Amino acid sequence: MRIDAHQHFWLLAARQGEWPQPELAPIYRDFLPPDMLPLLRENGVDGTILVQTLSSAADTDFMLDLAAQHRFIRGVVGWADLKTADAPRRVRTLAAHPELKGLRPMVQAEAADWLDDPAIDPAAEAMAESGLCFDALVLPRHLPSLLRFARRHPALAIVIDHAAKPEIAAGGTPGWAEDMAALAGLPNMHCKLSGLLTEAGIRTGIDDIRPYTERLVGLFGTGRLIWGSDWPVLRLAGDYAGWLEMCRQLVPADAHDAVFGGNAAAFYRLD
């Protein structure tokens, strides 16, 4: 089974005042399942994980409705305010949806120590108890606090989205490799091979991306690395088939079944 573990759908009418802005022409329109299906068929991908893009319960409901209607959406990573007093109850309610596989707060927009706040701990514990995964949408500056968070919650399965967005266009982020190495030392940590082209600027050739993928394979092995397209955001930097083929060249051939499907199925507990 081949799985794209990171893609999005949205309606611009629901995003007034939110990203993306009109100047991002390749992604400034509605994206829905009929846009995605041809890409999956053309590239031999069997299903996807649909991931949130707004910090709203309405966005999560929108995604769950789509998942109920389209079998190729194998799971949803939604959103909940994880620091409210009733967050554990909300987590358990969401976990009752069979399509809901995980939650993702928009940590990249928060302070570097956002994950250090103990207010998040009851919700994180409820997620672990409910079998939900934590998608860590973080930047390199958040990695030390993510390490502390992961150590506090060893039973919570965590995946780092887009390898924490290293600044490839600028030649790299100081300390990124060391911080990722520390995280990779924890067995509950995983990493998505996604989003790298968007961070690359003009450095989008395979040899520009190779040092990062080699580092990720070396740190997480091929058993905790999960491929995702980050489509349609990917349209800002490349195309679906091109990114998939680049990653197939960069990932050892004997690990393709795992990285391009098996690891996602295990991590998100897909049926």
Automatic annotation (TrEMBL):
Pfam assignment, any one: Amidohydro_2
Gene3D superfamilies for this protein: Metal-dependent hydrolases (3.20.20.140)
Residue ranges of domain Amidohydrolase-related in the record: 3-270
PANTHER family (UniProt xref): AMIDOHYDROLASE, AMIDOHYDROLASE-RELATED DOMAIN-CONTAINING PROTEIN
Annotated family: Belongs to the metallo-dependent hydrolases superfamily.
Record's protein name: Amidohydrolase family protein
Classification lineage: Bacteria, Pseudomonadati, Pseudomonadota, Alphaproteobacteria, Rhodospirillales
